[in-house]
Amino acid sequence: MNIPSELKYTKDHEWVKLDGDIATIGVTDFAQSELGDIVYVEVETLDETLEADEIFGTVEAVKTVSDLFLPLSGEIIEFNESLEDEPENVNSDPYGAGWMIKVKCSEVSQAEGLMSADEYKALIGA
């Protein structure tokens, strides 16, 4: 199970990489393995400003569809358009080519409430 220590995590199995006030967000290795083969990623909230814990999109796997929850309030400024043609990148490279969105955070301090890699490992029993 790959859980990079430099990232922050949520109880909804998403990861967050902060660079100033820009957060890159995707689903964790654990989440993609639980979902199975991902066939579609939908984000219709591009250019919208959402609050933390609002749904920003969905990820569809062969077995199920799961909502994606925004970990930090802000404006969704970018969607990883390569996922339209290659949603399997979420399975093969969840922390790299499989990233989902970038958000311009309205309150970077919210990141303090996210989990560390060790806390996330404890959550999933890794």
Automatic annotation (TrEMBL):
Recorded GO CC terms: cytosol; glycine cleavage complex
Cofactor: binding details: Binds 1 lipoyl cofactor covalently.
Gene name, Swiss-Prot/TrEMBL: gcvH
Role: The glycine cleavage system catalyzes the degradation of glycine. The H protein shuttles the methylamine group of glycine from the P protein to the T protein.
The protein's required cofactors: (R)-lipoate
One Pfam match: GCV_H
An individual GO BP term: glycine decarboxylation via glycine cleavage system
UniProt organism field: Pseudotamlana haliotis
Domain Lipoyl-binding: 22-104
N6-lipoyllysine carried by residues: 63
Family designation: Belongs to the GcvH family.
Oligomer and partners: The glycine cleavage system is composed of four proteins: P, T, L and H.
Iron-sulfur among keywords: no
Signal peptide (UniProt feature, chain positions): none
Name used for this protein in its record: Glycine cleavage system H protein
SUPFAM superfamilies: Single hybrid motif
Keywords of the record: Lipoyl
